[in-house]
């Protein structure tokens, strides 16, 4: 009996320790850089805004959240806060290309194509931040996404060595059901982000360095 009591206590303590670690991870990601979420008018000029991908419907129409992200990036560009927009998103299959359609929309809104850059391997937020540092050589950026996503995006970019501030792209009221699902998903995603930084250290898709300010940069054909 004593052996079983010891085992139960051990399992309970292990559970509590694991729960405490996961709680700390979530809170660390949530609050560490909250002062870096700024209104657009308070953002100091930086070379690049990273616009994070999201859903694209068949036919190339952007989901409402993604359209708001691109529009917010364009507004920063027009206000002289950034020189270029880096569209980062999923292009893991030939028939699905988030950065391409994001760029098309930005061009419709008036951004010259030569001021748009493409990251086709931004499948996850961690990947986008890692590639911003190690592939595109970016040091100071503005991150553009919805407010619920910004704490994680800023945390990850800071962790890989990119000095980042964030601007929220909430330009409309989103459906409650959508926000409820994304909020739940974000809890798990923040814990995973902390684990990626401190324990797992996954390896995103690499490649040769890309200088998006070079006259030789080929844009969407890079």
Describe this structure in words.
This protein has 222 residues and is of the alpha/beta class. 46% of the residues lie in helices and 14% in strands. The protein has helices at residues 2-31, 64-78, 98-108, 125-134, 150-160, 176-200, and strands spanning 46-52, 82-88, 116-119, 140-145, 163-168. Strands 3-2-1-4-5 form a 5-stranded parallel beta sheet. The relative contact order is 0.16. The model has no long low-confidence stretch (mean pLDDT 94).
Strand order of the largest sheet: 3-2-1-4-5
The residue ranges in which pLDDT falls below 50 over 5 or more consecutive positions are: none
Helices, by number, come to 6
- What is the beta-strand fraction? 5-15%
- Please give the CATH architecture: 3-Layer(aba) Sandwich
Derived from helix and strand composition plus strand pairing, the structural class reads alpha/beta
* Biggest pleated sheet: 5 strands, parallel
Q: Which of globular, elongated, flat, extended, rod-shaped describes the shape?
A: elongated
Would you tell me the overall average pLDDT? 94
CATH class descriptor: Alpha Beta
Helix content class: 40-55%
Counted beta strands: 5
How many domains, as an integer? 1
Distance between the termini: 67 Å
Q: Write the H/E string, N to C.
A: HEHEHEHEHEH
Rg over CA atoms: 19 Å
């Amino acid at each position: 009996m004593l052996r079983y009591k010891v085992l139960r206590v051990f399992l309970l303590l292990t559970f509590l320790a694991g729960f405490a670690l996961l709680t700390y991870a979530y809170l660390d990601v949530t609050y560490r850089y909250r002062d870096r979420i700024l209104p657009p008018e308070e953002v100091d000029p930086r070379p690049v805004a990273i616009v994070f991908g999201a859903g694209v419907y068949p036919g190339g129409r952007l989901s409402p959240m993604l359209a708001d992200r691109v529009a917010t990036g364009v507004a920063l560009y027009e206000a002289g806060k950034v020189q270029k927009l880096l569209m980062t998103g999923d292009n893991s299959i030939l028939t699905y290309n988030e950065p391409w359609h994001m760029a098309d929309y930005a061009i419709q809104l008036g951004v010259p194509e030569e001021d748009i850059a493409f990251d086709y391997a931004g499948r996850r937020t961690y990947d986008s931040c890692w590639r911003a540092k190690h592939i595109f050589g970016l040091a100071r950026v503005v991150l553009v996404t919805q407010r619920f996503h910004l704490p994680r995006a800023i945390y990850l970019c800071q962790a890989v060595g990119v000095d980042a501030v964030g601007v929220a792209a909430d330009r409309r009221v989103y459906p409650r059901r959508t926000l409820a699902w994304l909020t739940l998903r974000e809890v798990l995603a923040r814990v995973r982000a902390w684990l990626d930084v401190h324990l797992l250290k996954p390896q995103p898709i690499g490649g040769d360095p890309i200088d998006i300010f070079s006259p030789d940069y080929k844009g969407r054909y890079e």
